[in-house]
Specification:
- There is one protein chain.
- The two termini are 31 Å apart.
- Strands 1, 4, 5, 6, 7, 8, 10 and 12 form an 8-stranded mixed β-sheet that branches.
- With 205 residues, the chain is of the alpha/beta class.
- It has one domain: Rossmann fold (3-Layer(aba) Sandwich), CATH 3.40.50.
- The protein is built from 6 helices and 15 strands.
- The structure holds 1-O-pyrophosphono-5-O-phosphono-alpha-D-ribofuranose (PRP) and uracil.
- 1-O-pyrophosphono-5-O-phosphono-alpha-D-ribofuranose binds next to strand 4, strand 6, strand 9, helix 4 and helix 6.
- This is Uracil phosphoribosyltransferase.
- GO terms for molecular function: GTP binding; uracil phosphoribosyltransferase activity.
- Pathway: Pyrimidine metabolism; UMP biosynthesis via salvage pathway; UMP from uracil: step 1/1.
- Its EC number is 2.4.2.9.
């Protein structure tokens, strides 16, 4: 697991944790966090050399060999899309619909949409909350069934239980997070966490 340790990350995490932060501000600061995490998460993207002519001379530069496929887990993962997407020319967004049954805490999959010829692209699974890890593990199983070979998982707040689960069942997948929290409560919520990330983004509290 990589905890992205940067003062600006700490500042934005503090704001979204605050129960008095409203919907608009929550979304804004979540987007800033996505943007900050995109740098370490994407630092090993492969470049293809291209020639470019400046007004002064010809020189070589980089074009992405394979655009990343961003996979937000609905609903909460939507809040991480723009921060990544704004930085990546030609990025692809493949939505994955999944929710956690409130009684069993087991993930229920209800939607997916992936492009053809995806095997060589890096996949970036986006979900701000990694709690029990059930949703992330199920999403990773699914991405691998769909042919993904290179996946990274991006969360904002992670619980030790969820990190352990993902690292045990998907040791090949690097897990990035902005904060590693203390524990889960008996309803599977992360403590201190930020509450329900979907509700806080979409005002459905
Ligand atoms: C949240 C969150 C993760 C999941 C994490 O989604 O966005 O997908 O819970 O919990 P887990 O690690 O225990 O599986 P939720 O089920 O609340 O759906 P929503 O985004 O539609 O509100
Ligand atoms: N999902 C959330 O949105 N928050 C938690 O604390 C746990 C799961």
């Amino acid at each position: 697991m990589i905890v992205v340790d940067h003062p600006l990350v700490h500042v934005h995490v503090t704001i979204i944790r605050d129960q008095d932060t409203g919907v608009d501000q929550f979304r804004h600061h979540l987007t800033q966090l996505a943007r900050l995490l995109a740098f370490p998460v994407l630092q090993d993207l492969a470049c293809e050399a291209v020639t470019v002519s400046t007004p002064m001379a010809e020189t070589t530069g980089c074009r992405l060999a394979y655009e990343p496929i961003l996979v937000p887990v609905l609903r909460a993962g939507l809040g991480l899309v723009d921060g990544f997407r704004d930085l990546i020319p030609g990025s692809i967004v493949s939505h994955l619909g999944m929710y956690r049954d409130h009684r069993t805490l087991k993930p229920i999959r209800y939607y997916s949409n992936f492009p053809e010829n995806r095997q060589n692209h890096p996949f970036v699974l986006l979900d701000p909350m990694l709690a029990t890890g059930g949703s992330a593990v199920d999403a990773l199983n699914f991405l691998k069934e769909e042919g993904a070979r290179q996946i990274r998982l991006v969360s904002i707040i992670a619980a030790p239980e969820g990190v352990r689960q993902v690292e045990t069942l998907h040791p090949d997948v690097p897990v990035y997070t902005a904060a590693l929290d203390d524990h889960l409560d008996d309803r599977g919520y992360i403590v201190p966490g930020l509450g329900d990330a979907g509700d806080r983004q979409f005002g459905t509290l």
